[in-house]
Amino acid sequence: MSVNLILIGYMGCGKTSVGEVLASVLDRDFYDLDTLIVEQQGQDIGGIFQQQGETGFRHIEHETLKTFLRSRIGYVLSVGGGTPCHHDHMTLMNEYAKTVYLQTSVSILFQRLRLQKSSRPMISQLSDGFLHEFIIEHLPKREFFYNKAHKRINVNDILVQEIAREIKNWV
Fold this sequence. Notes:
Layout: E1 5-8, H1 15-26, E2 29-32, H2 33-41, H3 45-71, E3 75-78, H4 89-96, E4 98-103, H5 106-113, H6 128-146, E5 151-154, H7 160-170
Helix pairs in contact: 1-7, 2-3, 3-4, 5-6
């Protein structure tokens, strides 16, 4: 039987990078929930946030995730940093797949996210100082949900290939 895998964690923790390598190592298809939403909606995540707000985006995200989980098998899926925190998604994802929390320190998240602000609607308008404070305040609230994952891996200073290998050995 092929185990489904879902990678969760804060934005910038490496879910997509790890997911692509892991899918290749396991010879499975890789999907990114945000990419599925963009393809389905015909506009980027920032545009959806602008037009429909976070509530509208979370509704679209919920419906896309439910449909995906109920219709696919043998995959690696990465989800947005906020996905696990809404609509009881952790329960849903844990029911359909093995979930892995890619745990990352505030300092590494800050280093990565300050270079990616323009492509991330939630932080695009924040100065570096406010971004650091945002992560410090925001991460603990999300960790409550992330810690419900089947497995946690501290990914600080670990190569993507090593993380993929650890997950492969676990499943």
